[in-house]
Amino acid sequence: MKWGYGLTQNPSLARLCLAPKTFKVESVATQEEACRLRSFDSNVAWEIGNIIRANVQQKFTRPVVVYIAHANSSQLLFFATSGPGTLPDNMHWVKRKEAVVLRWGCSTMRMRLTLQTKAKTLQEVYEMGDPSIYAVHGGGFPVKVKGVEGVVGVIVVSGLTQENDHCVIVDGIQEYLARNP
To answer: GO CC annotation: what is one (predicted)?
Structure first.
């Protein structure tokens, strides 16, 4: 059974992420809170990155880029493709999604939904002239740690639909949390 472009349903890999039709600002904010980690370092980034990559390989036929970095320095902690076929354009999307997460401290999906409720673009609300710096398309996600204020890292997936880019991150973090109670 196929779900959209490149997504094959695998019954053993139940989706924890909401169906894209049910995305609302509040539900995505709740997802972000539910994905708060107990700690974050290069080992955690490695484990989450590998979970996301493995899940993408099992669920999708399209190749993606998985990128995880520290927020304070943009130090790269994890970078991988799920297979051959990614393009330099994927990295352009990664950097633009990362910029949204780092500037506003929320997922790119939540920022997109927030703007949609206002019927405005990012450029209109924040008086930005250059849309090549920021991308409000799902697939950028803040790494937050319990008891720590602000964003400590960023996870970005590029290569699927924006909804699926977002969901593979949420599912990957939830899987990591289930493995590491």
So the answer is: TRC complex
Give residue-wise pLDDT tens across range 87-107. Answer: 999 999 999 999 999 999 999
Sole residue written with tokens 């979970």: 51
- On whether the CB atoms of residues 140 and 97 are closer than 8 A, the answer is yes
Q: Three-state secondary structure along 165-177?
A: HHHHHHHHHHHHH
Q: In terms of Cα–Cα distance, which of 181, 166, 138 is closest to 15?
A: 166
SS3 19: coil
Cα–Cα dist 73/153, whole Å = 9
Cβ atoms within 10 A of the Cβ of 36, count? 16
pLDDT digit string (tens) for 24-67? 898 899 999 999 999 999 999 999 999 999 999 999 999 999 99
The rounded Cα 143 to chain-centroid distance in angstroms is: 10
**Is 67 in contact with 175 (CB distance < 8 Å)?**
no
Name the strands in the sheet holding 140-143, side by side, starting at the edge strand that comes first in the sequence: 76-81, 65-70, 153-158, 140-143
Q: What is the pTM of this model?
A: 0.88
Residue 7's DSSP bridge partners are 3, 60
